[in-house]
């Protein structure tokens, strides 16, 4: 059974993951990654462009599929060794703003979970968001 997730990270961090084919959640914690399984889908919400920014960004910016069962550590900097999962990201999708998301009734029941950094969503909400991402610009 495929599960559907939202991960929260700054856009710049998500772009690193897209470039190198991984996801990393909750400042590199292992626990959220273990919850996901091969074939699961993840949408990334970026509250800011960069983690140090004060200006909001507030968009769903990426969608990917977990490609294997491995959770692994990776040294990003001396003393910082976060955990990751391999993910293949789709190309050619548009970003979806928080304003557009707020038009989805199901989103309004889920959005308070963003503060957790990673949470499961119903397939119907995933499909609604994915549809918005595939719409013509």
TrEMBL record:
Family matches, as InterPro entries: EVE_domain, PUA-like_sf, UPF0310
Domain EVE intervals: 3-131
Family, similarity comment: Belongs to the UPF0310 family.
Name of this chain's protein: UPF0310 protein MX635_05780
Organism: Carnobacterium divergens
